[in-house]
Amino acid sequence: MAVEVYIIDGKDYGKLDKLLAADPYAKDSFKTVGYTLKESKAMGLKGGSYILYFKAEDATLLSALCSKLVAAVADAKKADAETKAKVEAQIAKEEENATAGFGSIFG
Q1: Residue 80 to residues 45, 77, 84, 98, Cα–Cα distance (Å)
Q2: In CATH, what number is assigned to the domain containing residue 102?
Q3: Which pTM does this prediction carry?
Q4: How many CB atoms lie within 10 A of CB 28?
Q5: Which helix (H) or strand (E) holds 91?
Q6: Domain tally, the chain
Q7: pLDDT per residue over 9-62, tens digit each?
Q8: Which long-range contacts (CB under 8 A, 24 or more apart) does 85-93 make?
């Protein structure tokens, strides 16, 4: 599974929100693929921006989503390797905690 992490400046949130909500039923939409959007400060990074995390089984689909993102939000920056690893670890931890919490409900 291929993963991408982008950093989007806070001033571009409106453009990003519009893109993420667009065409929710299309095979190549962010809604269909699924994504996580967090404030950068909540991810342990410098504040004032957003972190967009998304993944796809198909590398071609992932590439198309990256192209859509950069076309809609020109200042979107691909995260460097260190930031990407940090975000991936944080997301994995949150997913694990959610799964454990859900499991305890049904015990």
Answers
A1: 12, 9, 6, 27
A2: 3.30.70
A3: 0.88
A4: 16
A5: helix 81-106
A6: 1
A7: 999 999 999 999 999 999 889 999 999 999 999 998 999 999 999 999 999 999
A8: 86/43, 86/44, 86/45, 87/5, 87/43, 87/51, 87/53, 88/3, 88/5, 88/53, 90/43, 90/44, 91/36, 91/53
